[in-house]
Amino acid sequence: MPIKKAFAGIGHKVVNAVWRIGLATRFFFLTILYSGSGFRRFHLIIKELFSSGVMSLIIILVAGMFVGMVLGLQGYETLKRYGSESALGSLVALSLVRELGPVLAALLFASRAGSAMTAEIGLMKATEQISAMEMMAVNPIARIVAPRFWAGVISMPLLAALFSAMGIFGGYFVGVVQIGVDEGSFWSQMQAAVDFREDILNGVIKSFVFGTAVTVIALFEGYDAPPTAEGVSGATTRTVVTSSLAILMLDFILTAMMFGGK
User: Fold this and answer.
1) Which of 76, 85, 90, 129 is most exposed, with minimal Cβ within 10 Å?
2) Is residue 5 part of a domain?
3) How many domains does the chain have?
4) pLDDT 10s per residue in the chain (262 long)?
C-alpha cells in the first residue's frame, strides 16, 4: 500500500505538471492573440517598459561591472601562465557577449522584474480587480498581461546588451588601468575575436528567448495564483525558481544549437 500511494503521488504530480504546462501554453497564445489591442494602447507598454526595464537598470549595470572586473582578474591570471595577456580583451568580450551577459542579465531580470510582475498581478487577482474588469467586459489579458509581456520581451535584450557593455568596461578597468595590459592590444584583440553574427547576434537571440520565457512564466504564475496572501507569495517564489531553471535549460539548448556542430 505505501508503494501504491507513492506511485499515485508521483503520477498526480506529473499529471498536474503537464496540465499546468498546457495552461501556460494556452495563456501564451492568448497573450499573442490579444496583443493587437495592447499595441493600440502603446502608452501602457511604455509604462511597463519603465517599470520592468528602467527600474532594473541599476542592478544590471552594477552586476555587469563587477562580473567584468572579476573576469578581468581571473582571465589575466590564467592567460599570464601562457604569455597571452594581450588576449584579455577577447576573453572578456566573448565570455560576456556569448554567455554571461544574456544568462546573468536574465537571472537578475527574473529576480527583480519577474517577481514584481507576479506579485502585482497576483494582488490584482486577490483584490478582485481582474474580476471587476471581466464584469465590465474588459479583457484582462489584453489590458494587463499583453503590455507587460511585450515590455519584458523588448527590455530583456537591451538590458543584456548593457550588462555586457558594463562588463567589458569593468574588464578594461581591471586589465588596462589597474594591471597594465596594453590598451591597444586589449581593444584590437577584442575587435578581431568578436564576430557580429556568430557572437553578438547569437547573444541577442538568447536574451530574446530568455526574456520571452521569463515574462510568460511571471505573468502566468501571477494570473494563476490563488487569491490569498499565501498564494501570491508562493507564486512569486515559483516565478523565480522556475524562471531560473528555464533560463539555464534554454541556455544549454540554444548553445548546443548555435555552437554544438562546430
Assistant:
1) 129
2) no
3) 1
4) 677 777 677 777 788 778 888 888 888 888 888 887 767 778 888 888 998 888 889 999 999 999 999 999 998 888 888 877 788 888 899 999 988 999 999 999 999 999 999 999 988 888 888 888 888 888 888 888 889 999 999 999 999 999 999 999 999 999 888 888 888 888 888 888 888 888 889 899 999 999 999 999 999 998 888 888 888 889 999 999 999 999 999 999 998 888 765 5
Instruction: Give the separation between CA 163 and CA 57, rounded to whole angstroms.
Output: 9
Domain assignment of residue 125, given as a range: 34-259
d(CA 155, CA 114): 12
Whole-angstrom distance, CA of residue 152 vs CA of residue 261: 31
Alpha-carbon distances, residue 249 vs 5, 140, 238, 243 (angstroms): 31, 31, 16, 10
The letter for the amino acid at 121 is I
**Which residues are within 8 A (CB) of 212 and not within 5 positions of it... i.e. 6 or more apart?**
152, 153, 156
As to burial, measured by CB atoms within 10 angstroms (0-12 exposed, 13-18 middle, 19+ buried), residue 92 is buried
